[in-house]
């Protein structure tokens, strides 16, 4: 399939009532029994293929443009080791090369955990130079996730600790279940968050709150996380994925080029002074003036119908 050259597994979702189909792409080849998944109020039959610790699923029909990146290493609570790091790198590169992607939902297939952070059992066997190389690669990988041109939504049900929280911080939006817990515990191990946590957390929750969380390493609940702005929504346990898909579908209905330019304008503007930020906004706006989608939006408004955006 174009845009997914590195992935070989494939399966099709089907729903008799909504004709919802999705292509499920993985790096594995062994077939597993069909599973019935629910997307909001929709049901879809998945013929799964076994894979490594990171999977990609592409929704289609009315949800075409939504891509799910799923963490699946249950034996280690999604702890990030070398294999998972390679899986993340491949998945992010694949999504970045897919022009049909409009929004990415990052979630866990493992109950009650998003990601437990770095694989410390594997880390214990590394030399200091190997640890440095791994952490540098993880930092770069999360930067690549952050730099995807389309919006990313992290779904947290359960624990997001250390590198797991740093992954979520690299996403544009975060939705959690109320029983979720968050922590950057690295100072308790005589290190610091090294995959972007010391930089992204203060940009999201503010300097003082970030320092307190990093200095103490204390865990906070989903309700506290939403109160300090760490997550966008805290919903009843088990409903975070549903809420994230609701957000993704809302984004997916907007002009895809406009969404990309909005993300670019916001991200660029935050790095510079206000006059330069406004220049960045102007540049992004100008790129939309001659698009078919802009004319379609005006026509749809005049004709009182939903727009049909093509990303052109």
UniProtKB/TrEMBL annotation:
Keywords: Lyase. It comes from the Eukaryota. One of its GO terms (molecular function) is hydro-lyase activity. The keyword Lyase applies. CDD domains: crotonase-like. Pfam families: ECH_1 (PF00378). InterPro entries: ClpP/crotonase-like_dom_sf (IPR029045), Enoyl-CoA_hyd/isom_CS (IPR018376), Enoyl-CoA_hydra/iso (IPR001753), Enoyl-CoA_hydra_C (IPR014748). Belongs to the enoyl-CoA hydratase/isomerase family. PANTHER family: ENOYL-COA HYDRATASE-RELATED, SD19268P. This is Methylglutaconyl-CoA hydratase. It comes from Musa acuminata subsp. malaccensis (Wild banana).
